[in-house]
Design goal:
Elements lengths: L1 H15 L16 H10 L15 H10 L3 H7 L6 H17 L21 H12 L6 E7 L2 H14 L7 H16 L4 E2 L6 E6 L4 E6 L2 E9 L35 H13 L3 E6 L8 E14 L8 H12 L3 E9 L1 H9 L3 E10 L5 H9 L5 E5 L12 E15 L2 E8 L5 H6 L5 E2 L2 H5 L3 E12 L2
Parallel strand pairs: 1-2, 1-3, 7-14
Antiparallel strand pairs: 3-4, 5-7, 5-8, 6-7, 9-12, 9-14, 10-11, 10-13, 11-12
Bound molecules: zinc ion (2 copies).
């Protein structure tokens, strides 16, 4: 999980690092002199360069005009203050003034050498993107542009040479200009650099926008009131979760008909118009174990949600009514990605009620005493056989915090037990053929068989 998170952040930072309005190149005005001398050689239209005095001097502006700078780049590189809304008009009047002074635009220049006419199309581009974005519910957007590296380098050289000192680089200028358009086109959105709900990336080569709807995270607690439901989806063992399933899973691809994940996630997924869900519980109970009390904390992730804003009370009722007594949720609130790690990393003590059968003759008092004697004990638990295929084989030490409500009727006993996180509770009773020491079965020297087990509380949050 943590790795995924880092990877995501890194990928995005590659194109988001341009930042917004303040991303001037601090070294832009520190161009060494000898580079300036080499410049005529670098720029193939050197015949039209009359002077290297940078804008806002008239000579500098005349240069930009002769080179064929578009109105936007005229404004951007002029050293005059402007907003993107007025950039076209300001650039036009600067160009006209330069022409009046006798600077002739080089007719052979087909595209603006600074932006390759990227800014000229920005309004149309913004309209096309707006049309796609207005399908979705969001308030916070992060914007990024991917430029070919050589275009960035070329523009940087030209801008430091012919633009006013401190002129904004093409990448952040493009982000600003497009961002300003989108913010004015779409109501109630803002541009952010962190925690965006929508990430928009423009490939400036193809002008293709890619829109990513960031996951929506919801925190809550769930109770599992019926046995036989796994916490998360479980692919069919026979077909390994093939899309069209197989005979043994009746075409579902799933080992079990439902899961806590789907009981909670499917009604929410439909409501938020999400693509899929991911479920993260604070630990998990076995399929045959109920989870009662206040319930188990979880974070559910809505992937690609087209809707984001819902009345969470209504959402809670929706889940509880569709689940119809199988799974019940409470305390639903908006969460964030970082809480997944917290949920996964919390070692919460758990309280259980467990009922079991004692095979053989033993008097009630001795059974009660034996069970009580386990309170405060530290168990040594070798990885149980039932999970050995997916867990490393080792001995874990776990403490039995408390035992209460012991009752014994004939050869059945029941108790409430509170244990450290990660304790195998069934094994505390039946000993797993001696792998858990001490245990009820071990101390009584009689086989014990668990009848049922409930989680009564996850002591966290
Ligand atoms: Zn331009
Ligand atoms: Zn199957």
């Amino acid at each position: 999980m943590d790795n995924d998170e880092n990877k995501d952040e890194e990928d995005w930072s590659e194109y988001a690092s341009a930042g917004y309005s303040t991303a001037y190149d601090p070294w832009a005005d520190l161009v060494p002199l000898e580079e300036e001398e080499e410049d005529d050689y670098n720029f193939d239209s050197d015949d039209i360069i009359f002077s290297c005095t940078p804008p806002p001097s008239n000579d500098g502006l005349d240069n930009l005009c002769r080179m064929g700078a578009c109105n936007y780049c005229m404004a951007r590189l002029s050293g005059k203050s402007f907003t993107w809304k007025e950039a076209n008009d300001i650039g036009e009047s600067l160009t006209n003034a330069a022409i009046k002074r006798g600077a002739e635009k080089n007719e052979e220049v087909e595209y603006c050498p600074f932006c390759e006419d990227l800014f000229v199309d920005i309004k149309m581009m913004a309209e096309m993107i707006t049309e796609q974005l207005t399908k979705y519910e969001f308030k916070k957007m992060q914007l990024g542009a991917h430029f070919p590296k050589d275009q960035i380098i070329t523009e940087d050289e030209l801008r430091t040479q012919y633009g006013a000192n401190g002129s904004q680089a093409i990448k952040s200028a493009f982000n600003d200009a497009l961002g300003e358009q989108l913010v004015s086109n779409i109501e109630n959105i803002e541009l952010v650099k962190e925690q965006p709900e929508v990430m928009l990336l423009i490939d400036t080569l193809t002008l293709e926008p890619s829109i990513e709807l960031r996951s929506l995270y919801l925190y809550g607690r769930y109770k599992k009131l019926e046995r036989g439901i796994p916490q998360t989806r479980w692919p069919c063992r026979s077909c390994k979760g093939r899309k069209d399933g197989c005979e043994s899973c009746e075409g579902t691809g799933q080992q079990y008909a439902t899961s806590v994940q789907d009981q909670i996630g499917e009604p929410l997924r439909a409501a938020f118009e999400a693509r899929d869900t991911a479920f993260h519980g604070m630990g998990r109970e076995d399929i045959d174990v109920r989870c009662l009390g206040r319930g188990r904390p979880f974070v559910i992730e809505m992937k690609g949600p087209e809707r984001r804003y819902a009345d969470l009370k209504e959402m809670t009722e929706l889940v509880n009514s569709t689940s119809n007594g199988r799974v019940e949720i409470s305390e639903l609130r908006i969460s964030r990605r970082s809480e997944v790690a917290r949920i996964k990393g919390t070692d919460a003590e758990k309280s259980y009620t467990i009922r079991f059968k004692i095979e053989g003759e033993c008097d009630t008092e001795k059974i009660e005493e034996t069970i009580s004697s386990l309170e405060g004990e530290t168990l040594e638990q070798q990885t149980p056989q039932r999970v050995a295929h997916r867990r490393a084989d080792k001995i874990r030490k776990r403490k039995v915090v408390s035992i209460s409500n012991i009752s014994v009727e004939e050869n059945e006993a029941q108790m409430d037990v509170r244990v450290e996180s990660g304790t195998y509770v069934k094994e505390l009773v039946h000993s797993d053929e001696g792998r858990t020491v001490p245990s009820v079965a071990g101390l009584l020297e009689l086989p014990c068989e668990v009848i049922w087990l409930d989680v009564n509380d996850v002591h966290a949050d």
